[in-house]
Fold each of these.
Amino acid sequence: MAGRIPQEFIDHLLGRVDLVEVVEARVPLRKAGREYVACCPFHNEKTPSFTVSPAKQFYHCFGCGAHGNAIGFLLEYEHMDFVEAVEELAGSVGLPVPREAGVHAGPRDPDLYGILDQAAGAFRDALQNHSVGVRARDYLAGRGLDTTVIEAYGLGYAPPGWDHLLRGVGADEGRRRRLLDAGLAVAKDGGGAYDRFRDRVMFPIRDRRGRIIAFGGRVLGEGTPKYLNSPETPLFHKGRELYGLYETRHALRHLPRLLVVEGYLDVIALAQYGIRYAVATLGTATTAEHLDRMFRASAEVVFCFDGDRAGRQAAWRALETSLPVLRGGRQVGFLFLPEGEDPDTMVRKEGGEAFEMRIAQCVPLSRFLYEELERQADTTSVDGRARLVELARPLLARVPEGVFRDLLIEGFAERVRVEPGHLRRWIRDGRATDRPGYRRPRPAAVRTRSPIRHAVTLLLQRPALAAGAGDPGRFRELDRPGVALLVQLLELLQQHPHLNTAAVLERWRGTEEGGHLERLAALPLDVPEEGLEQELRDTLAFLAAEYGARERERRWAQLSLKRPSEWSEEERREARRLFPEGAPQGAEDG
């Protein structure tokens, strides 16, 4: 089995490749000052907001928020996995990819992809088998599905019985073990195994590259559960994957929107009627990771639900998940179907054109938010309007700052008959400003320019500055948010002075801190290139002085536990060092 790719090689690789060349081979770039710009390849736009920085080896879209280094770009644009992206970049600069001996490369075992692909073939063969698949074919025909769409989505059939796959695909012990690891077989308590899927129409679930990673099965007859999904495996995580996303992107180069429905057959029926941009979550509520993937494909997402109470509750949960990601022109809408209908039944009744008209007339998130909250408050009274503000405040606070948030606030301000500025202040502060003991927080502009945040941003702008930053350990005890990350960053860059911004960010890939660093790397700096070194020196000096002042306060508090006359000679000398301009009254006594 191939071993892990050494971190040192990844650092070296990101220092060798040129992100501009990697991107320009796939997306036309135009020089704009020290950077390059283009229309973003991850969402539809007319005005370029996608920038590539040769100095940082980092790309960022100010529209959809996509950002990363050369590895990240291949992961998102080419839908590669991490190892494939590294191998692609290494090949482009003529570097062989080394491996560490005896260390497994990761959970994505290529043998699992192979066994899943073989299982999909067995299911398709069973569906086409004249006698074995007749019930499944009759069921699909009864749902109105034609051969073209069945083949496009790779549908199959798992026959009745406990060992159809185990006898066919799992012919030896190694393959049987892979069937268990892939979630296609279930181990018995007393030993042995049996097929997970039996007498079910099978729907292969693909990742962004089109590889089968799991299955969903719809039972024929009255068995339960009606729908059964593969369990979580090294390849399959329900909270990340979307059924139909690969087929959608394969069918349409530019997606007008994504329509989120609840079932496999909803996706397939809509596709048969020409609506090729439907996807489904896999038995879970929509997650932030789902939304991130959807907004990388299209700037507009429409959720489709039944119009009953359960459907509106599901829509509200989707709204709450969507609020923190609504930035840069992203849109969310809600389509409510008549009670008892789903997209499958509805599109068959009225056709694709009429259904698309429903989608076009969906309820915007803002209107759904207003209407749902106004159901809980009587806006004809002062008390009711105050209640509406309290309901809205925590929700509006979750929306990223920008035009959409400002317009939402203005809409609510009009409904509760207050000035938008007052509502913004209540949302920001979280409490009435005239409450006794209230202290106004620092303005947002001051908060975003905190010394630690500024120092990290400077280091990401030019990592070589860390060489002259002195001992990072002197900041370790400073009681400020983010100081641990600053110390780690300084230590890393002093130990590895050759790292560029892209390699630094790669060290924190997939972590919460990595997300913070990527956002800071995308920030513009109002500091000229020739002033960066002095700016960092001044910022670190400020932090060091602050630490020194706090240490003096802490030590003085300890000394103050005794009267000056009780101080030892050493404590008197320390007091004079702490207060060189004059020790406190009594420090010289005794």
Amino acid sequence: MNNFWRAIRLTFKYRLTIVITVLCALFLAFFWGANITAVFPLVQISFNGETVGDYWTKEIAAKTDALAEYKIKKAALQDELKGLLAEDGKILLPKTDQRYAEVQKGRLALGKLQRDEQTAEKGLDGLRRAQPYVDRFAPKTPYGTVVVLMLLVIAGTVIKSIFTYIHTYLSTRLGMLGIYELRELFFSKAIHFEVDYYSTHGVADTMSRFTNDTGGIANGITIFYGKLIREPLKLIVCLIGAALISWQLLLLTLVFIPAVGWMIVWMAKKIKKTVRNALQEMVNMYARIGETFRSIRIIKVFNRERLERAKFRRTNRKNLQKGLKTAKYNALISPMTEIMGIAILVTVILFSAWLVITGETSIWGIPMLRHPLSLGGIILFFGFLIGASDPARRLSDIFSQLQGAVSAADRVYEIIDRENTLPEAVSPKRLRRFERRIVLEHVDFSYDIERQRISHALERTQKEKTKETSAANGRAPNFVLRDISLEIPFGETVAIVGSSGCGKSTLLSLIPRFTDPTSGVVSIDDIPLTDIRLFDLRQQIGLITQNPILFNATVEENIRYGTYGRSFDEVVEAAKRAYAHDFIVNDLEDGYRTNVGPDGARLSGGQMQRITIARAILKDPRILLLDEATSQIDMESERLIHEALKGFIGRRTTIIVTHRPGALPLADRVVVMEDGWIRHVGTHEELMKESDFYRNIFTNPMEQPAHKTSPAQN
């Protein structure tokens, strides 16, 4: 519940909206009770063939008689106690006197009579002051009274409906504003997570929390400011009305409340657990759907539609089972609360009917009423209880819906509260401009340990104690990088080659600090990366990946991405240097204003890659990283890209991960990796003599040795 309350607090900045929402709920509750109150004059006045004036006259006479009776009783009691009580009400007898107890009892009775007399005098005074207005404005016939009452009920209902509309709209607005703030907070936190977090947990989990779970929280906030304020106020108004008739009788009808409270607590635990499991199953469904449609070409060419349908059916069935379990508990709430409501109603009917029929004012010697209960009074009492039953029933439904919001809030705040496993330095050292060297010293890296570290960061936000182990399921960790030591001077171009899975891309990911080594140190200009502000580090790095990454925006916006201070002429110059200008102006309909579509779908692979190179050229980084940048494009596009790189890599440090020989002439040195180790470092001529693997790249460029580790570790 604490996390859901944190989501509620995000709306506190909209104070005026909250105040108006609460005021509307108060007015709504008032008119809810006012409409019920109309039952009394109908039954007590009109249905008895009387007018309001007749009833008023009778009430004045009854109050006058009651006041006279109080005065007579008080005078008689004062005579009995004369000489035994002082003027201030103190008893003049010693406590040892046998009459002391009787005098004490008489003094209490006298005090009650005096209070009753004062109440009767105030009531009579109010009736007499109102009588001229009643005589002047009240209907003169019983049926006219009914007509006026019904008109007042309609007017009250219209006013109540207006406040209901305003209150419902504002509570929904607060829910949407709250989720707007929460999504801003969620996104700003998630975008700074380390890259490996999404590899470990998948994008589907984050997407589900961002969309499905935050939507559940929005519904919860709407309920909180809507029904959770409105329905209790309506309930309170009805209970106050019933208490004004007989608070003792009202208390007697609420004997089942402890049982209701126990039931609510029990249901809360069950619903919260099942809803959380259902949300997790929804994540699995998102993951299944996303994987299927991302891989649709492979699925079709291998004719595996039937297999994917079966896999989806299993996931869908699990989701159904979790949903049905949640529905089971939700379905229990209504009948259980209805049973409790009927039990309460039956109890009050039995006791109140006995009071009306017998004319008594007490039950089992316990005072329930000051005066015998009239038919109009008991019907009004029932009306208030029935009026209270509707918001009480709604509150039971609200409770189950809030449990879903509470579970969703826990999942969302797991991400918001999660510790970043790549924290910023507490006292960062300023890297103004890289100019000397990049050094890796005895670097080891294991994805097993990295995944465990990421999982523990998430578990700590759940406040769960976890036992540190060296790897999942007790297995020894598999190291992708082993004792890597390498120095790269500024201005040098280094190519890294090796079989698939040997750790080339993992090594490259250490430079922009997408991940930290399991052990060892990576430094730039003799400053460890962990001591450099991430913004300063990445501001000096350009990255071109194997799969070109373009946004659903124009060509110009994609080239300018991250360097918005540059002019359009500079964008065009960068595109020319990347050999992209010609196809942009000749082949694209709107030139640089052409939208490339989702993931650059309107461009070929070679065109996309040249735009990413133009983006890197425009940034003019001190460090350029190329991760298999030409591995998935045609030979002509590769030739143009190499031409673009030749004129660009000379004034910066460039690290090229590749397995294609065409990129190797760009390098000053080549690093050959095998099984996570650096086996050879040297020039092209040296490696042609020393490394069988390197020599094989040129003699059999299409035959790359397989590697025993997972390609995901490359």
